[in-house]
Amino acid sequence: MKKITTVVELRQLVTDWKLAGRRIAFVPTMGNLHQGHLSLVSKAKERADKVIVSIFVNPLQFDDNADLSAYPRTIETDIQQLISVECDAVFMPTAEIMYPEGMDGQTVITVPGMEDKLCGQARPGHFDGVATVVAKLFNMVQPDVAVFGEKDYQQLLLVKKMVADLNLPLEIIGLPTYREASGLAMSSRNQYLTEQQRKKASSIYRILNEVKAKLEKGDSDFGALEQNSIKELQQLGFVPDYVDIRQAGNLEPAKTSDKTLRILLAARIGKARLIDNIACNLD
């Protein structure tokens, strides 16, 4: 596996591969890799001849400097994991490479329709940081396809809209959330959890599925379903940001006539802010 730290090296590698007729897949990450990330790499290998993974903890998407400083960095372990799944190259830029003029002087991309809802509302500026770094990485890597997990469902929709709006020549693939045996969505932030908190966190997936089951049985009181779930989370010791039933395609508030829904949840427990979601199709 090639280890790359500069844009010049990256572009030379990509140029060589493209001149040889290779199809390139890309998986952007912030490192601290787990099996969910590796499943994205495996899917990327199915869809392309060569796979590049990036590891970059993006300061532009953090609204809390303490959270940025505490974010786990495990580069040597990450590299070994990527080697184990036969990744072709890992791109590990520094903040100075990504933002040579500093973040205050960086052109920022805003994808409309995301900043006023769910995680966009809870974390002001977060999605501008996500859109900006992903666009920069797409321009650097110039992949034919990029693979993202559905755990960050709002992020996935944001990236798809940005690619469509800016006419970027690549395909975006979303992969179902990879879960632990308990149902807890795999996340780098899970390591912030104590053993007791981790047991409680498995309730998130149960609560989502209970809402889904009630919707499938014809319960259309979305507000009551959301509020009851929030109360249950609070009783378990969580501080919920939201439990929302939304239209799957654009995350607008769901109407009783909508059939393709997404149930989304964000809640804090201890040092961790956990997010999850599931699909609910009523056709």
Write the SSE topology.
Blueprint (H helix, E strand, L loop, with lengths): L1 E3 L2 H13 L4 E6 L5 H13 L2 E6 L9 H6 L4 H10 L4 E3 L3 H4 L19 H5 L3 H16 L3 E5 L3 H13 L5 E5 L19 H7 L1 H14 L5 H14 L3 E9 L12 E10 L2 E10 L2
Parallel strand pairs: 1-4, 2-3, 2-5, 3-4, 5-6
Antiparallel strand pairs: 7-8, 8-9
Helix pairs in contact: 7-8, 10-11
Q: Mind describing the biggest β-sheet?
A: 6 strands, parallel
CATH level-3 fold name of the largest domain:
Rossmann fold
Head-to-tail CA distance between termini: 45 Å
* DSSP strand content: 15-25%
Number of strands: 9
The structural class is alpha/beta
What is the mean pLDDT? 96
Going by CATH, the architecture of the largest domain would be 3-Layer(aba) Sandwich
